[in-house]
Amino acid sequence: MSTTQDHPARRGQRYNRIIMAVFAVGIVSFFAGMLLDQTFVGLVVYAVACLGGITALLYLQFASSVQLSDEREQRLHERASGALIMIAAYVGLPVVIGLYLLDNLGYYTIPPVVWGGIYAYSALFLLWGVVYTVVRYNA
After folding, report:
1. Residue 45, Cβ neighbours under 10 Å: how many?
2. 67-93 in b/e burial notation, b at 16+ Cβ within 10 A?
3. How far apart are CA 42 and CA 49, in angstroms?
4. Residue 72 phi, psi (nearest 5)
5. Membrane-crossing residues (predicted)?
6. In whole angstroms, how far apart are CA 13 and each of 52, 55, 62, 67, 98?
7. Over the chain, what is the mean pLDDT?
8. DSSP 3-state helix, strand, coil percentages of the chain (rounded to 5)?
9. Residue 27: exposed, middle, or buried by beta-carbon count in 10 A (0-12, 13-18, 19+)?
10. Which of 55, 57, 26 is closest to 42 using CA atoms?
């Protein structure tokens, strides 16, 4: 007889929580290392934790029969991801346009760091468009 604890969805959720805890330990270690002037040690712990977490996630997702999430969680993830992209678009696009206008009118010179942010922002939405197109035509 199977108990609720042995249900495959519960097992996947437990593994997912453990992996997220590994990521959290890595992040906390990195910040603790910076606070204690041991940045390199914190960075090493962070790198090991993140690489271990990514490896575990990839294994569980592609090489294991364990299901990390159910349909409800997948829909929630899709809605949250869509909302994040839309917020970034609605907030970021007017900011970038405003920066271009101010730069061209001579009121503000866009520094190199901000140009890097603009390039990263543009790359994010170009990548999103490519992935959206691939998913749409493969659906």
Report:
1. 19
2. bbeeeeeeeeeeeeeeeeeeeeeeebe
3. 10
4. -60, -45
5. 18-36, 42-62, 83-102, 114-135
6. 18, 17, 16, 8, 44
7. 89
8. 85, 0, 15
9. middle
10. 26
- Give the N- to C-terminal CA distance of the chain in Å, as an integer: 38
Per-residue pLDDT at 62: 86
Residue 85: which residues within 8 A CB-CB, separation 6 or more? 128
How many angstroms separate the CA atoms of 73 and 60, rounded?
16
Percent of the chain scored above 70 by pLDDT? 94
CA 83 vs. chain centroid, Å, equals 14
Q: Helix (H, G, I), strand (E, B), or coil: what is residue 3?
A: coil
Locus of tokens 């829909």: 75
> Is the overall model pTM greater than 0.90, yes or no?
no
Cα separation, 5 vs 12, whole angstroms: 11
